[in-house]
Amino acid sequence: MNITHLADHVWKRVAKLLSGELNQSELVWLASPHRHMALLTRRRAIMIVNRVRLFALLFAILTPLWSLVDLVVFPFPLWFNLALMRLIAAGTFASLLLNYRPSGELFDAYRAMALLFAIPTVFYVASFTVLSHYQLSGISAAIGAGYAFLPFVLLAGLSVFPLTLLENLAIASPILIAQALAGSLRWSTLDWPSFAGAFWLLVLITGVATLAGMSQLAFMIALVRQAIRDTLTGAFSRNSAQEVLELQFTIATRSDSALSLAFIDLDHFKSINDQFGHEAGDKALVDMAAFVHENLRQGDMLARWGGEEFLLIMPNTNLEQAQAALQRMRSVGFGKRPDNTPLTASVGIAERAADQVFNWKMLVDLADRRMYLAKQGGRNQVVCTEGEE
Fold first, then answer.
1. What percent of the chain shows pLDDT beyond 90?
2. What pLDDT does residue 4 have?
């Protein structure tokens, strides 16, 4: 137990060094991606794929160009084999660049990174096997030794990706194993002190690259958190709500699951600003958001759509469940007005499957339209169908 506490204490100390902008609850996000919020996962996946494509472009250009150097220093049979492998690797890099596009899904980002690092790893093992059959000397030996630096380049490249500790280890491990495998191919002639020193340097580079990637992730977490929140109420901003809605609608459509949306508009809010001032209006918005957050279920998300309008996104929630949840909120009010009377709201609810909508924008429009029906029907009510009064 003491060892566990010590490890936890050391981890928190190290995590705090990476960024002072993270909350205590966010430190665990640096270790594993499993608890990342959907918006962070989506934006991180897009960034990873874009950087994979950038690397693929660089390798697709530079990999075959080095054949000119090989042609000068290596005998023709060796040059031909290496040039052929370089052309295959360059073509694979080009295919990765042309055929991969950011989808916002983390699995696709993992697959892109796996392909990016697998191509040079396979090339490294294959080239090392070919070079081991030749006795090189002078400048040829020096150029041949340069092939051994490829794993160092790959592991250093990890530093440009915003990855967790677990992700870094998962990607670096196959490269380290490939290095050990390449050494085993020269078991009888291996210079063990030199090999051990090179392997230790690889491990050190892996550690530095891991810290760099985690530091990038820490700053990304802080920036995403600041960007996606409405500065006044702490609810999600409209832009982030649109991103979440697009993602949740896609997930719900693929799995044929429920997705409900409540459009909440505070009643007579303009009169608060007119009678008591904008500070009182701001306080009413903050109190309303705090009230809703206290009553949210895990997985629900409140977003400020504009002014006194809010969206409540409720995944895996059908129309009846959403109506019951909003009726409970409405029955106790959405906070207090400056004159201590209840702050009420008109609510429109729409659901993906029940209302047979085909995209998230239609879902928002339908919930908005029903919210206006609630206004026209006397306010302080929840409307779930066009026929309600």
1. 49
2. 67
